[in-house]
UniProtKB/TrEMBL annotation:
Primary location group: cytoplasm
Keywords: Cell cycle, Cell division, Cell shape, Cell wall biogenesis/degradation, Cytoplasm, FAD, Flavoprotein, NADP, Oxidoreductase, Peptidoglycan synthesis
The keyword Flavoprotein is assigned to this record: yes
Gene field: murB
Active site (UniProt): 172, 246, 342
Originating organism: Undibacterium baiyunense
Metabolic or biological pathway: Cell wall biogenesis; peptidoglycan biosynthesis
Needed co-factor(s): FAD
Membrane-spanning ranges: none
Name recorded for this polypeptide: UDP-N-acetylenolpyruvoylglucosamine reductase
Length: 346
């Protein structure tokens, strides 16, 4: 049976973005099933005005900063479903619909005794958004467990399967973010979770949490609970105060620049990279510039984590951009380090 689609007009997106910006979309469509995408594509073949609208994909709205007025067709991906596809000798292959909550999906995998995603617990957003940003935390990136994904192609009107090598994953980046962001709509994502699980405890906060509780041989659930507790102690709940989580990427700099910074600031936090470069802690750099806890009129920097910008009430996308640019300028002036924003401004 062919799906019917009804486009809503002039819709507020305030409840659909974690920063709580009261943006309005010219056209809006919630996608609960694949056939709706097919029906939309078929309609676009004969409706020039619809086909010419810029499209904006919306998952959990946790990695996006919206303008007040969006002359877009906003597609909210809400396709659900979680399933074990197969077992191999070495992996459990699991699949989730693009509209599944990322954190709830991670907790589901742990409930099935599938380890691998626990370090990514409590990251906001949806499963479908996770490959776009190649989300990561506490020494693990989504690509570490990625198997494949299915995407709808708005050029051909057909489905395409992407393997890992097709996705051009990089630090907080992928082909879907910087190459083909307007062509493909991710429908579902599959993950290969290793049966020979090993904990990833490279970050001191996680190791200390487990040691304080005398957990010498942690399970995946133990690690997840540690991550959740640490994140909750540092990051604000978007339901309470609008935010987009970590606002800046941790910059990667040359060993030469890192050593220059260390000469002036011996306590600079840095992590060696395989190629000899160093990753710096963006939050530490911002804090040294005096931004932690600072409040402007409608926006500010969270008092517990300088990496997080927050909506103090009535913030607009332009307010957030202005604050971000001030922080970037101060970090550049003090450390000669360019900070790159994680969320996408639309």
């Amino acid at each position: 049976m062919k799906s019917e689609i009804t486009l809503q007009q002039d819709i507020s997106l305030q409840g659909l973005n974690s920063f709580g910006i009261d943006a309005r979309a010219s056209y809006f469509l919630r996608i609960d099933e694949l056939d709706q995408l097919r029906a939309l594509w078929e309609r676009m073949q004969s409706d020039v005005a619809l086909a010419s609208l810029p499209r904006l994909l919306l998952g959990g709205g946790s990695n996006i900063i919206l303008s007040d007025q969006l002359p877009h067709l906003v597609l909210q991906m809400a396709i659900k479903g979680r399933v074990l596809l197969m077992e191999t000798a070495e992996h459990f292959i699991v699949r989730a619909g693009a509209g599944e909550s990322w954190h709830e999906f991670v907790q589901w995998t742990l409930g099935q005794a599938y380890g691998g995603l626990e370090n990514l617990s409590l990251i906001p957003g949806t499963v479908g958004a996770s490959p776009i940003q190649n989300i990561g935390a506490y020494g693990v990136e989504m690509q570490d467990c990625f198997h494949s994904l299915t995407a709808f192609d708005f050029v051909t009107g057909s489905l395409r399967t992407f393997q890992k090598q097709d996705c051009a994953f990089a630090y907080r980046d992928s082909i879907f973010k910087s190459g083909e962001q307007n062509r493909f709509v991710i429908v579902d994502v599959s993950f290969a979770l290793a049966k020979a699980w090993q904990p990833r405890l490279a970050y001191g906060d996680v190791e200390k949490f487990l040691q304080d509780r005398e957990i010498a041989e942690p399970t995946p659930t133990d690690v997840s609970q540690a991550i959740i507790a640490i994140r909750q102690s540092k990051l604000p709940d978007p339901a309470v105060i609008g935010n987009a989580g970590s606002f800046f990427k941790n910059p990667i700099v040359s060993a030469e620049l890192r050593n220059q910074i260390l000469q002036r600031y011996p306590h600079c936090v840095s992590y060696p990279q395989a190629n000899g470069d160093f990753k710096l802690a963006a939050g530490w750099l911002i804090e040294q510039c005096g931004w932690k806890g600072r409040r402007l009129e409608t926006v500010g920097v969270y008092e517990k984590q300088a990496l997080v910008l927050v909506n103090l009430g009535g913030a607009k996308g332009a307010d957030i951009r202005a604050l971000a640019e001030e922080i970037q300028a101060d970090v550049m002036k003090k450390f000669a380090v360019a900070l790159e924003v994680e969320p996408v401004f639309v």
